[in-house]
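Can't paste images in this forum, so I'm doing it all in text. The chain is below; anyone willing to post the predicted structure tokens underneath?
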Amino acid sequence: MDYRNSEASEEAEASGEAGVIVGPRSEDTLPASAAAAVKVVIVGGFGVGKTTMVGSVSEIRPLTTEETMTQAGVGVDDIAGIERKTETTVAMDFGRISLNERLVLYLFGTPGQERFWFLWNGLFEGALGAVVLIDTRRLEVSFDAVGRLEERGVPFVVAVNVFPEAPVHPMAELRAAMDLPDSVPMIDCDARDRASSRDTLLTLVRHLQSLHTVTPETP
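Text version of the structure:
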């Protein structure tokens, strides 16, 4: 082995030569005009589209922790209705989107399986709001996500993700089935579509703004 060539290669890597990228990529750096950054979590049951949403809307290359599903999950993970799913998030998904020149959202997608719920507390820490994704074929898998957000007092919106052959129900029926108050926004969403996912996040931001608007008292 030629150690001189090896050392030269290491020096080239350290100095950024030979095509090696040193530091963050230019497209990953925050805009200079960014004035506020908000942490948002994307939650929901197993297989409702959280990873897809983060990936479709993120302006940077998303960080995912997807692993191939193995025999270890048989009898543990409920895959009824999503039998073709072959990968699953085991820690979190991460992405970023600039809604305008000044406001940036950091997106954290949570794992859906109950055996990974111990990670949720850390992901919820510091979050100003959340998007709850639901699948009308398996509405019940997102009940626990809603309950955990309510327990922690994290404001949220509910997005009905579009799936082929999924039953379509009036929003009023879905709201009643999930026991959601009228104050919680509920919208349709296609997690595969960037514009639709962005509109969902804008709905959350508007909801958060409305909660923090102080109505002047009448003298």
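The first strand starts at residue 36 and ends at 44. The chain has six helices and eight strands.
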